[in-house]
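Box 3.1 A note on notation
Throughout this textbook, protein chains are presented in two layers. The first layer is the amino acid sequence; the second is a token string describing backbone geometry. Keep the layers aligned when reading.
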Amino acid sequence: MGKGKGKGKVEGEGSTRERSISWDDDQTKFMLDWYIEYKKEQHAGFIWKTQHHLKCADALNREFAMGVTSTQVTRHYRHYKENWQIVERALNNSGNGFDASKCKLTISESEKAKLRDRDRRLLAKPIKYFHEMQELFSGSNANGSLAIDQQTCCDIDNKSGSSDHEGLNDVSTYAHPIDIAEEDSDTLPSPTGPDNCSPGTSGVSKKRPRGVKSPSKRQPKPKSRFTDATEKIGNTMDRLVNQLASPPPPPMPQLDPYATMWKRIDALPIGSKDKVAVGNYLGRQENEGVRGFLAASCDTTLETWVYQFICDRDGV
């Protein structure tokens, strides 16, 4: 399966456009998380523009080497925004139930009969990326607790003239997709005619009651391999800088391997001059073998050697 590589053109529609691509789950979640994190850093009233979708495309290409374009990212973003409008409209219907643990709606058979094929397929199973879509596209705690019927939702939207302040305009102005057989919830269908009523981003559904927290917290965004490697390199450089800035430790004192032998010679009942003479002789570099032998010898052997050295020196 292709991962967003290559661009194609669809002909016979009056104009050319880039073709739809297949998205893996981790690529879609990365895209939604990127938009969420980017939006958190922006000011109130922030509007999505083309350069923002281009930045998201660059991030996807660095992470997955997809070769995706900003236009394809914009369409994928818009697809999930439309999905959220379908979910939000169903959540605001007082006749529907919602299982927060499974992110799945319970819809009566009579209500299902009124739904379009695309809506029915989306709502018939657990809502994929429910929490990501809720955080990105809605400022409310859309869990069914603020349920209002669909007609009221549409009337409020029509009166308030609500608009999408995210740079893509209200998706009610977009063409709604054709219901394609076996269409999955994360594939982007082709556009067709408009619908009569779309809740858009209704001001009623976006209000969150005070004291009500989100039903579940979004899992922290996993670090990318590039970020993890960068942190490891940075930590290693910090350690090297600290080591270079710190003064070197003082050298350890050298222990004399013959210290015990010198003490044994100093304990012999001979004069100080004789002890000095013996020490001078054994301390020479050429006498290292003798030093080693005497250091490993018993007291009797060491004492005999010292007396013999003194006698030979004095010519006795």
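The chain is about 50% helix and 0% strand. The radius of gyration is 41 Å.
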